[in-house]
Amino acid sequence: MKAYVALLFSLLCYPVFAQNNLQDKPVMIEDRTQYDYPACAIQKDPQTGKSGVIINRSGEMMIPYAYDALKQCYLENEAYCFAAKKNGFWGCIDVHQKTLLPFAYDSINYDGRKFFPAAKKGKWGTVNMNGTVKIPFIYDDVSSLGFEGKIYLVKKDSLYGFVTADGQVLLVPAYTSLDLLSNSANKSTPWYVLTDIKSKKTLWNKATQLLAFPAKYDSIADVSAHRVIVVSAGKYGVVTTNGNVVLPCKYDYLKFLSVIDDTQPLLIKAGDKYGLAGSTTLAAQFNDLQSISGGFYKVRSVGKYKIIDRTGKAVTKEEFDHIGVFVNGMVPVFKDDKMAYMDVKGQVGKYQPYACSGYTELDSLFRDMARVMSTKDDSLLMQFCRRVTPEPYTLAFMKSINLDHRDFIHDIEHKAYTMESITESWFLRLQDMRKQWDKKGVIGELRYIGLSPDFTYLRDEKYAVETFTKTVIFQEGDIKIVFKPSDLTRVDGRWKAFKLPSRM
To answer: Average pLDDT, stretch 425-433?
Structure first.
């Protein structure tokens, strides 16, 4: 109830600055006659610069223009009060100007909680309206991390730590930075990445309030339910959330194929070859390896794809130009502009003509983009745009798994736009960008530089849908071009654009 009332008050009492004269009334926000106190607004006297509080309905002064600054700070039992600054110091007053908290503070950062951050003699702590201190005034900064007011981030001598609302030290300030970790499914986790004075990293769990392991890794790449991908000396490995080594740091790249199910293997990369590690181990031997759902993977050694199970056994000897994702026990396979469906036993149905295009690998997509942007050939540019934008097959697949990414299905069905218009818009945007690049002196052959390893996030684990939102670097001579496609999403194994690229 208190949180609700505090929110209501934040809507009712806000700073308003008079534009003309003292008779200008603040805009009425809401009639609060049902409460003990009427709706009001903080207003500044344009002549003296002093702040006061006006009753919205009548325009009468509730608090005269006598303070250097005022801000809402407290609401309890529907009776509110203000943080006020006078003679260089902050305190708190009620609507009758009765002093609740003495004017003895350098600053007050009321955060809606009973005990709130304040500064005194250059140091921060927390205090309530009665002046009772919980976190002592010994820190350079104090701020709530939003854990319902239970945990505060404190800073001392440029290092960070954690303290409970009652002042108990959870983590002595010893870290130069901390960052809330989102996993490769783009979901928030209870983990914070902490960096020590030697630039080594560890994890701290806001739920258990414990460190996972000593700070000894160069980077934390990802976290699942019970496993963490760590990086040391440029090599990837896996440890448990208790710090036990699962895979040593010896791989060029590691990726979770599931951040929910820890029984699923990880994708490994050694050199330019891919394999699996974990519950299933397949040596890095493939030029490409992708999950296609249900414990099956499509792999490519030379040119064509085939399907293997998690033991590495081939489901069928037949190879395909492209393989989609298993849905309800069936997977689409493409060969020579024809499509058929194959079951989990490797039985392939009858092939039917089916035109479908797209890129299965981002590297191939961006290499082609560099080539067509260099040629200045609009017909090649249009061909590229057709391959990278959604087509009827994309729509049909998304419907089959109920994936309405960016309201694409809804918009197409309600004729907000057409798939052809997406392609045309991409073409016009790239055409315009090519002109801008020409003005920068990019007149030779563009070269695609490459991507950082951790460049995608899983949008849908079950159907291996992932999204790329990072930037890409192209280079021509000494000139570097930054390109941001905004949103490329791999749907049924092919990368498709659902937003226009950013103008960069």
So the answer is: 95
